Amino acid sequence: MDMPTPNPAVLARKARIVERLLGVLPKDAVIHEEAETRAYECDALTAYRCPPLAAVLPRTTAEVSAVLRICHAEGVPVVPRGSGTSLAGGALPTADCVILGVARMNRVLETDYDNRFIRVQSGRTNLSVTGAVEADGFFYAPDPSSQLACAIAGNIAMNSGGAHCLKYGVTTNNLLGVTLVQMDGTVLEIGGAHLDPEGLDLLGVICGSEGQLGVVTEATLRILPKPEGARPVLIAFDSNEVAGACVSDIIKAGVLPVAIEFMDRPCIRACEAFAHAGYPDCEALLIIEVEGAPAEIDAQLALIAGIARRHNPVEIRESRSEEEAKKIWLGRKSAFGAMGQINDYMCLDGTIPVTELPHVLRRIGELSAEAGLEVANVFHAGDGNMHPLILFDANKPGDLQRCEALGAEILKLCVEVGGCLTGEHGVGIEKRDLMTVQFTDADLEAQLRVKDVFDPAWLLNPAKVFPLRVTEGRRAG
Amino acid sequence: MRGLLGREGRSTLGGVVAANASGPRRVQAGACRDSLIGMRFVTGEGVVVKNGGRVMKNVTGYDLVKLMAGSHGTLGVLSEVAFKLLPVPEAEATLALEGLSHSRAVEAMAAALGSPFDVTGAAHWPGRGTYLRLEGFSASVDYRAERLAALLAPFGAVAPVASPWAAIRDVKPFHGRAGDVWRLSVKPSDAPGLVALMAAEVLLDWGGGLIWALVEEGADLRARLPGLKGHATLVRASAETRRRLPTFQPQPAPLAALSAGLRAKFDPRGILNPGLMA
Ligand SMILES: Cc1cc2nc3c(=O)[nH]c(=O)nc-3n(C[C@H](O)[C@H](O)[C@H](O)COP(=O)(O)OP(=O)(O)OC[C@H]3O[C@@H](n4cnc5c(N)ncnc54)[C@H](O)[C@@H]3O)c2cc1C
């Protein structure tokens, strides 16, 4: 993975840059000793590491603005960082960059149940947003599996999703406003407690821009009343195709489950060995969760079971208690941990039209066999967002490269069938060079021009999202 | 909008997207832009650009789909759009309360929208009623209607009524009436206070978050609402009034600069709807 050569002029001015940063931040908020900057050398894409020039941990929007003014004046690239759980290398530093971490900005600023929103500092973790309103019967809908750790800042930058997004939408559909600090230090208020901000939808393009347009310091988020109840059902099949067809039929029937999760045999096996959730030994497994009052849940589950039965399931397991419901989710929720136990893995994130599911799973099986690397599939089937996990051994020379090559083939397949490279993890550095598979030069140019407007000097997270060759002239200038 | 604007012809999907036009279901299902998953458009330079696609979840590159939705044709001409579709609900029910003041109505709507009963419409039509909609499978709608009615009992008698939603979406009360029409997006609980300052006839949708206001011709409604948090759009007015008052809420300078910057990149010669959003 190529990264741009660090700017020698910036490296040479490290002492002066650090001194200026110390002029606007308390001492403990500027990290510049080599041993300590290592803590910021990577995100959850751990195959790639590089300690930054320095890292700063501001506590207020004013401090963020002061830091950015300095970096702008000194021509120092800035990589914003939330909790560093990006799987795409979105928060990977370069040696000449300042990491701007918002982890200390974690306060709740306002909760308003009448108007159903919460305003938080962006470093607050996803789960603790729900935590702040749960006792009053509300929740924040987007729920990435990393929700215990990841920050709202990263969620906004990646437009993150989660298992329950089938019904409630992803981050962009639940974001009402942000405070954004531009690279030159200008503080912008976009949106707020009202719907649909005036003028061009800047909020819409900021969400998902991977820290390249500005630093988000505060966010107004939509909160929703908690449903009366929720219950999952587990349905086991002896073929991926049939499970895929069942998903299509459920969606067509007008039931809107909050989640439809899909696991294939390699994944079921690994989860079973790890979490002992008592999953049936089968080829494919669906976990479908519905919400509502007890009678509504029963009615929806009966409808789903009826559809499933037409597809000859191996087993339909309903949950009659909280305990049983937890057990159904247990295996799925520990999927990533389970994989981590057996092996190193790379988690892909392409989305495909749901109707292509059987075909794509078959092709992934073939590609996996050709490459000699095992692939386990666990994903959000309701919206076609796949998560093929490629297992490899990081200590075995060449394995990472083979894994990346297989990953690229699988993502190309997703695009080929009418899908896309990434459904919720973002492009980062990981899928940067595949962007030309999905987009023409003109498509990319239109996106680059948006960055030209927000960050004319191309200092914010400049080496991400777009192939380096495409951004070369801009990053230099 | 035909009835409100007194025009003939039919809306096109391109127009709906360009205006990010959303109806009463906005409170629950999101705006037009939230259902939009892909598009192709032609910039002011004649370049064809594709963004998004035809899948439900997609974070590949910048979300220009959102930027284009609501850009009123100032960034490009939309040639293809792709939407996420939902199954048509099996049943619909509307509950009505009568005789509520603006503030009591907004409170009732907040109570309903803050309940777990999945309300898909909440509007206040002064002089007519305060309306709440439920949709879904019939048994579920019946159950939720009963629970919602119980929840709303403190606000007065709750009765099921025929669907008023098409009329609310089309702003029926202002059709064929003299005066200018404004559309405001605000924090719902601010609505009663704002309405008191407006000297206007109003229709409240989105639980109070959307205010349709009918005022005397030529009035500058924005001037009556200093410090407005949200925005006011002039929807219907004479050419003379339009020359004096901008259609869209003026933006703070740094935001206006970003918008102008984007327009300059997508339409360097300023040939697309010149002056409309500037
Ligand atoms: C085990 C595991 C499970 C996961 N499951 C999911 C899942 O289910 N769904 C999903 O969508 N993702 C998932 N992820 C990916 C990841 O958690 C998300 O992308 C998350 O939103 C990243 O948040 P973060 O705070 O850790 O951001 P970081 O990793 O710190 O940064 C991510 C990106 O955001 C930018 N950024 C950070 N802060 C700011 C800011 N203040 N302003 C502007 N830009 C900023 C960074 O520059 C970077 O590009 C998972 C990750 C792991 C490790």
Automatic annotation (TrEMBL), chain A:
One of its GO terms (molecular function) is FAD binding. Gene3D superfamilies: 3.30.465.10, 3.30.70.2740, Vanillyl-alcohol Oxidase, Chain A, domain 4. This is FAD-binding oxidoreductase. Keywords: FAD, Flavoprotein, Oxidoreductase. It comes from Cereibacter changlensis JA139. Its cofactor is FAD. Residues 48-226 form the FAD-binding PCMH-type domain. InterPro entries: FAD-bd_oxidored_4_C (IPR004113), FAD-bd_PCMH (IPR016166), FAD-bd_PCMH-like_sf (IPR036318), FAD-bd_PCMH_sub2 (IPR016169), FAD-linked_Oxase-like_C (IPR016164), FAD-linked_OxidoTrans_Type4 (IPR051914), Oxid_FAD_bind_N (IPR006094), Vanillyl_alc_oxidase_C-sub2 (IPR016171).
